[in-house]
């Protein structure tokens, strides 16, 4: 994957397939420690210990385990190659937590890329699910909740192209604000 | 700056369009983009964005864009399928943002599928 935001788009898909009604996505940047933390937390059906082991192994998973394939191993590799770390914890019936820590000053750090496009795609293509996206840069924070948007839209589908464009533009502009001053 | 007030205005405009669509009873065209690991890695996200951008820009009605998982021909990703009521499904392969915009204009607006981008043309 050329951008970490594409990995996030991919991993969040697992949460959706796992039936999560709420998925939280966290992107937290520490510009002093040169670290980036990406978290994806869902309340989906969860996995057994064995499944958690298997999803991290690119050579184990086959088409019969449709839920995941190369997605998790690729994301894990992206984090570990920077000298960072990767954890996945899960509980059946409760949900799954995926966390990846990146060293942003590593030569092998993949750029975060277009998060606005990733979040607008996830949110607008999955009308029946809720998402909370939190973007932190040091002590500044921006939060985007799909539930808030749905309240405003009063039944107008999130998949309306004009709505998708707004969501993307809004997230992009709000994120830019985090970097000002 | 994009504001919540702007979203409110978008909502009102969309509501009017949806009401008009429903009144005509017109079954819409469904555009589906493959968004599994294979599709995303091959560039499905900018394709999806180009489709929705162009549809919004040209104010094309009766078209909805959705995503799906792996379509099963990973080597031809990004793949876009167009389902038009009463017509055979058209499968576009190895898509790019530029090709996507052309498909909106020629296929979705003018009703002429772009044959050279279809799976039939590529695999021949």
Fraction of residues of chain B in helices? 40-55%
Shape of chain A: globular
User: In the CATH hierarchy, what is the superfamily of chain A?
Assistant: Histidine kinase-like ATPase, C-terminal domain
> Largest sheet of chain B, described in full?
4 strands, mixed
| Major sheet description of chain A | 6 strands, mixed
CATH topology of chain A: Heat Shock Protein 90
Strand order of the largest sheet of chain A: 3-4-2-1-5-6
Q: How many domains would you count in the coordinates of chain B?
A: 1
| Gap from first CA to last CA of chain A | 31 Å
Radius of gyration of chain B (CA) equals 15 Å
- The pLDDT mean of chain B sits at 90
Beta-strand proportion of chain A: 25-35%
For the largest interface in this structure, which chains are involved and how many residues does each contribute?
A: A-B, 34 and 30 residues
Q: How many runs of DSSP E, i.e. beta strands of chain A?
A: 6
| Rg over CA atoms of chain A | 16 Å
CATH class of chain A: Alpha Beta
Q: Which consecutive residue ranges of chain B, at least 5 long each, have pLDDT under 50?
A: none
Average residue-wise pLDDT of chain A: 92
What does this structure look like?
The complex is a heterodimer of chains A (181) and B (124). Chain A is an alpha+beta fold and 181 residues long. Chain A has one domain (4-178): Histidine kinase-like ATPase, C-terminal domain (Heat Shock Protein 90, 2-Layer Sandwich). Chain A has six helices and six strands. Chain A has helices spanning 4-17, 49-55, 71-80, 115-125, 146-153, 161-178; strands at 22-30, 35-42, 85-91, 95-103, 130-137, 140-145. In chain A, strands 3-4-2-1-5-6 form a six-stranded mixed beta sheet. The model of chain A has no long low-confidence stretch (mean pLDDT 92). In chain B, α3 crosses α4. Chain B is an alpha+beta fold and 124 residues long. A four-stranded mixed beta sheet of chain B has the order 2-1-3-4. Chain B has five helices and four strands; from the N terminus they run αβααβββαα. Chain B has a single domain (26-123), classed as Glutaredoxin (3-Layer(aba) Sandwich), CATH 3.40.30. The interface between A and B is medium-sized, with 34 and 30 residues.
